[in-house]
Amino acid sequence: MNNRRVLWGVILLVAAVLLTPGYFIARTYGLFQNEVVLTKYQLAVDMDGEQVDAWPLLAGFAATDKKGELRPLYYRLEGSDLNMLYQLAYGQFEVEPSEDNPFLAGRVQYDHLENGYIETRKEYVNAKEYRQDIIFYNDRKETIFTYDPAAKADGDMVKEIITAGMTRSNGQGGSGVVEDKYLNVTRLFEEKLGISVRVQVDKERRLATILMEQLK
């Protein structure tokens, strides 16, 4: 009996040693998450049934669920300009026609905003240290969401999503998976602005198209 227990202990130990690298490799490629960062796609927005380039919104900052016909949109919280998503939702843009890319009918030209919908606010926690919250407003300048970068992602409004296959320097001579916090734009806009936001992924044409419409 003791010999059998020792044997099973050795087997489990060997299995753990062999599986651990596999787990980290799989995690690097986002195999354990339900979301995918759209780095392999062109990000577009739907305009009356035609796809228009959404630049400078970036596919590398956008994510969605791995499955589904119409999927939620997540967009990276730090280092991006989420104001442009507001401009799309509120119709504060024009479309510049273009025939350069046969898969796109043109490019969005965003209006300049004197008063943005997003504000970074410094809040001191003591005499020496402070945090910089990101405040989201509606078109009436009412606060609809406050993001604390130091807070743990709740999984509902803010998700931590891995960019599959990419690593980032940790500043200590090593590197780790690229994992960033993303705003659930679909949830925020639908609950607070009454605007539906969905993503349609076309794998063949490598297009990820944002569809927006006013909810009744």
The string of secondary-structure elements, in order, is HEEEEEHEEEEEEEHEE
Please identify the structural class as seen in this structure: alpha+beta
Count of DSSP H/I helices: 3
Spans where pLDDT lies below 50 across 5 or more residues: 22-30
The global form is globular
- Beta-strand content bin: 35-45%
Rg over CA atoms: 21 Å
Describe the structure.
With 216 residues, the protein is α+β, with helices and mostly antiparallel strands. The chain contains three helices and 14 strands. It has a five-stranded antiparallel sheet. A hairpin with a 5-residue loop joins strand 8 and strand 9 (130-137). The N and C termini lie far apart (70 Å).
Supply database-style keywords.
216 residues, alpha+beta, five-stranded antiparallel beta sheet, four-stranded mixed beta sheet, 20% helix, 41% strand, globular
Give a short overview.
The chain is an alpha+beta fold and 216 residues long. It is built from three helices and 14 strands.
Give the SSE layout.
Blueprint: H1 2-28, E1 35-37, E2 42-47, E3 50-53, E4 62-65, E5 74-76, H2 83-89, E6 93-97, E7 106-110, E8 118-124, E9 130-137, E10 143-147, E11 158-169, E12 175-184, H3 185-193, E13 195-202, E14 207-214
Parallel strand pairs: 2-14
Antiparallel strand pairs: 1-4, 2-3, 4-5, 5-12, 6-7, 8-9, 9-10, 11-12, 13-14
